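User: Here's a structure from my thesis project, written as C-alpha cells. My advisor, Dr. K., wants to see whether a designed sequence matches the one we expressed. Can you design one independently, without my sequence as a hint?
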C-alpha cells in the first residue's frame, strides 16, 4: 500500500480560526519477505528457548527487560511476516496557528491485514490492540498507541509495578499456562526477599521454540542490515517500548 497524496488527518478550528492541523504527506507499507509459519507460539519464543529455573540463592534471575522487549518484538515480526498485519511508515506535518509553527515527523502504524486464526495468546492480544486502537483513533493508531494498549491489557491501565517487565512476562506465561497443559509455571515463596520462578515444558516443545527463536532472530538481523525502513522502525520500537514500560514504574512526587 502506498499513498503519496497529501490529505488532512486532523483539524481544530474555533470561530473560523485554525488552531491546529495535521496532514499526511505520504505513507507506504514496509515490504518484508521471509520464511513464514516458523512457529505456532511466537509469544513463548524468548522465555521458552531455554528450560530455566532461577533460584534466588544462586542467580539474580533472568533479564526481565530483555525478555519483555524481545518477546513483543519477535511476535510482532512473526505477525508481519505471516501477513496478519501490515507495518506502515508515514510522514505527517503538524501546523499550529495556520503556518506560524510547523513540525514534520515520521512514524509507524499497524493495521490488520488478514483475520488471525492462530492460537498464540500474545499474537491474539496484539491483533486485538491494533483493531481497538484503529477503531478508536482511526488513522492515529500509531506504534506507541498499540504498544500502550497491549501493556495495559497485561499490566492494567494506570497500574504501577516495581518491576513492570517481570510482571508482564509472568502474566504472559500464566495465560499460556491456563490454556495449555504442556507448559507449567511455578512461583515459589519468597526467599531472602526474592521469589523463585520455574518454567517447565516438554523437551520437544523446548527444542521447537529454540529453533524458531534462532530463525526469527536471524531474520531480524538480516532485515536490520538490508532494509533501512525496517531498521528505523526497530529503533522506534525500542524507544517506544522502553518509554511505555518506564511509565508504569512508581514515581515519587
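Assistant: Designed independently from the structure alone:
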Amino acid at each position: 500500500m502506498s499513498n503519496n497524496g497529501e490529505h488532512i488527518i486532523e483539524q481544530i478550528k474555533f470561530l473560523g480560526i485554525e488552531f491546529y492541523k495535521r496532514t499526511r504527506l505520504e505513507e507506504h507499507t514496509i515490504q518484508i519477505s521471509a520464511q513464514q509459519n516458523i512457529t505456532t507460539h511466537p509469544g513463548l519464543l524468548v522465555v521458552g528457548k531455554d528450560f530455566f529455573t532461577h533460584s534466588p540463592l544462586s542467580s539474580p534471575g533472568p533479564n526481565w527487560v530483555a525478555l519483555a522487549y524481545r518477546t513483543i518484538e519477535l511476535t510482532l515480526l512473526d505477525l508481519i511476516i505471516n501477513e496478519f498485519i501490515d507495518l506502515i511508515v508515514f510522514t505527517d506535518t503538524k501546523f499550529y496557528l495556520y503556518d506560524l509553527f510547523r513540525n514534520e515527523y515520521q512514524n509507524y502504524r499497524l493495521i490488520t491485514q488478514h483475520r488471525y486464526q492462530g492460537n498464540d495468546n500474545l499474537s491474539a492480544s496484539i491483533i486485538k490492540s491494533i483493531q481497538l486502537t484503529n477503531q478508536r483513533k482511526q488513522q492515529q493508531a500509531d506504534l506507541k498507541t498499540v504498544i500502550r494498549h497491549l501493556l495495559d491489557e497485561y499490566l492494567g491501565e494506570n497500574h504501577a509495578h516495581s518491576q513492570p517487565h517481570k510482571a508482564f512476562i509472568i502474566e504472559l506465561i500464566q495465560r499460556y499456562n491456563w490454556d495449555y497443559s504442556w507448559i507449567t509455571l511455578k512461583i515459589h515463596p519468597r526467599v531472602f526477599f526474592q521469589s523463585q520462578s520455574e518454567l517447565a515444558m516438554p523437551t520437544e516443545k523446548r527444542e521447537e521454540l529454540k529453533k524458531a527463536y534462532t530463525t526469527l532472530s536471524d531474520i531480524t538481523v538480516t532485515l536490520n542490515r538490508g532494509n533501512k525502513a525496517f531498521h528505523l522502525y526497530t529503533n522506534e520500537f525500542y524507544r517506544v517500548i522502553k518509554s511505555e514500560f518506564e511509565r508504569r514504574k512508581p514515581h515519587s512526587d
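When you compare it with your expressed construct, this may help: The chain has seven helices and eight strands.
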